[in-house]
Specification:
alpha/beta; 8-stranded parallel beta sheet; 5-stranded antiparallel beta sheet; 21 strands; about 30% helix; binds alpha-D-glucopyranose; binds calcium ion
């Protein structure tokens, strides 16, 4: 069985990873071409976001055909080659399964629209209210009402995301069978991991107006969710003990995650939760400018770490993905302490209890976009909210400022491979512009540099394999109320690990109130540490891992 506690996953967003044919669009051959780079980093899995046939309204999260590769990304032969080449290097593939919804181009939805009752029941169609308005007041995650009216049917269908992403009806057993079939198809191709997109939204509860929120309480962690996941497990990936799974859990609760990712619950191996990435929101409202609330960040991460550990459930730990801004820009200092803060953030997350995920470019310290005009942005969510914010009365400049900070495109600009044009991502015109800092921030300059952010990530990946306490230890928060230091202790049998991170640029003396004799420095982002009588003087963004065995 795969020990996912000792593993690290590397996330690839193929369209922005590497383009091999000059069309400006990353492709599967691009992933194959860079496998040696990934191998060098030392990770065990590659999670690739969807490359199935799709009209790309939501960059592939709108799947038209789950059994075929979108020609923009390549062919099934390209996939098989990638799979073989990855295997040669000991790297396993994890695919991204989008089953809360399909594309409206999917033949099931097309048949539904054509009046086929069987397929109509694959989706969620409802009559409007008496006055003809939408069945409920739920909001789509991408803005606007979550229901779309179909005049020929005089009914609405539900789309929690884009209007081109109709939600599937998981209460229909035929849908659940189809989904299992798709997973088994990819298992037969040798796939050893699956990520399930917004999977805690698949079991809808009551279709009622929400007077307290945007509707999410009626479809998040719904009444049959655990039953459906167990069934999916049993009917597909659960048949192969080597397969690991991760569920993307939108606005979930910890109690539910004890089930989703419990060691004995036969649902998933682990979960992504996002509460710690809403610490610069106003509640659930992302489209505002609010500084990072460090105490909130700590409290949330500690609560989850301890809660999941006590309940024998497993977290995926991460700062970013293709939906998030770049961590060094968001939580660190992308200017003066670029390297130090990127490494500090890496230490903090890789020392936690859970399986770490590295998102492409994170290991290079890639930063948010430097876009200054709205038409440089491509993401449908950003473009929708740019309009919505103006409708709410914001000026164009203020709306743009908010988009610049929170846009998902911050994580979607091309990987910066070298200092050539477009960062070496493509010989053509990239689908989204590369960040102009590619001459400073790129892979080529970091791979052979021992002091680079890349080399630091490499060490973290390696340490997880070598040092049991990192993979298996319990966790205890240290000095949880400290206003600028993030510190915790991990314990496994006779081994201890202490992780101490200065989250800010001001030097600080942190009193561990412990006897640190006998501890050795396993890793730090500075070459010298100042530790005396249990007190550690932390330089700007300094991070230290201390080890006792
Ligand atoms: C997930 C994906 C995101 C996508 C959404 C709808 O949150 O990560 O990119 O837009 O689901 O599928
Ligand atoms: Ca291409």
């Amino acid at each position: 069985m795969t020990d996912f506690r000792k593993s690290t996953v590397y996330q690839i967003y193929p369209r922005s990873f590497y383009d091999t044919n000059g069309d400006g669009f990353g492709d599967l051959r691009g992933v194959t071409a860079k496998l040696d780079y990934i191998k060098e980093l030392g990770v065990d899995y590659i999670w690739m976001t969807p490359f199935f046939v799709s009209p790309q309204y939501d960059n592939g999260y709108d799947v038209e055909d789950y059994y075929n590769i979108d020609p923009r990304y390549g062919t099934m032969e390209d996939f098989e080659e990638l799979s073989r080449e990855a295997e040669k290097r000991g790297i396993k593939l994890m695919l991204d399964m989008v089953f809360n919804h399909t594309s409206s181009n999917h033949e099931w939805f097309q048949k539904a629209l054509a009046g086929d009752e069987k397929y109509k029941n694959f989706y969620i169609f409802k009559k409007g209210k008496e006055d003809g308005s939408a069945p409920t007041n739920w909001e789509s995650k991408f803005g606007g009402n979550a229901w779309e009216y179909v005049p020929e049917m005089d009914e609405y269908y539900l789309h929690l995301f884009h209007v081109k992403q109709p939600d599937l009806n998981w209460d229909n057993p035929e849908v659940r069978e189809e989904v299992k079939k798709i997973v088994r198809f990819w298992m037969n191709k040798g796939v050893k991991g699956f990520r399930f997109d917004v999977v805690n939204l698949i079991s809808k509860d009551k279709y009622e107006d929400d007077y307290e929120g945007d509707g999410r309480r009626f479809y998040t962690d719904g009444p049959n969710i655990h039953k459906y996941l167990k069934e999916l497990n049993e009917g597909s990936f659960g048949q192969d003990a080597e397969i690991i799974t991760v569920g993307e859990m939108s606005s979930t609760s910890m109690e539910n995650c004890f089930g989703y990712a419990g060691a004995d619950s036969n649902e998933l191996s682990m979960v992504f939760s996002f509460h710690h990435l809403k610490v610069d929101f106003m509640g659930n409202e992302k489209w505002v400018l609010v500084p990072v609330d460090f105490m909130k960040l700590k409290n949330i991460l500690f609560d989850w770490q301890v809660g999941m550990s006590e309940n024998n459930a497993w977290n995926a730990v991460f700062w970013c993905n293709h939906d998030q801004p770049r961590p060094v820009s968001r939580f660190g200092d992308e200017e003066k302490y670029w390297k130090e803060s990127a490494k500090m953030l890496a230490t903090l997350v890789h020392g936690l209890r859970g399986t770490p995920y590295i998102y492409q470019g994170e290991e290079l310290g890639m930063t948010n976009t430097d876009f200054t005009k709205i038409d440089q942005f491509k993401d449908v969510e950003s473009l929708n909210y740019y309009e919505i914010l103006q409708q709410k009365g914001l000026s164009k400049e203020d709306a743009l400022r908010i988009i610049q900070i929170h846009s998902r495109d911050n994580g979607r600009t091309p990987v910066q491979w070298n200092s050539e044009e477009h960062g070496g991502f493509t010989t053509g015109t990239p689908w989204i512009e590369v960040n102009n800092n590619y001459k400073k921030v790129n892979a080529e300059s970091q791979i052979h540099d021992e002091a680079s952010i890349f080399s630091y990530y490499k060490k973290l990946v390696q340490l997880r394999k070598e040092v049991d306490v990192i993979a298996y230890g319990d966790i205890k928060p240290l000095d949880a109320k400290h206003p600028s230091v993030f510190a915790y202790e991990r314990t496994y049998e006779n081994e201890k690990l202490i992780v101490v991170c200065n989250f800010y640029k001001n030097e600080v003396v942190w009193d561990s109130k412990m006897n640190l004799e006998g501890y050795e420095t396993l890793l730090s982002n500075y070459s010298e540490q100042n530790i005396e009588n249990g007190k550690i003087t932390l330089k700007p963004y300094e991070a230290i891992m201390l080890h006792l065995q």
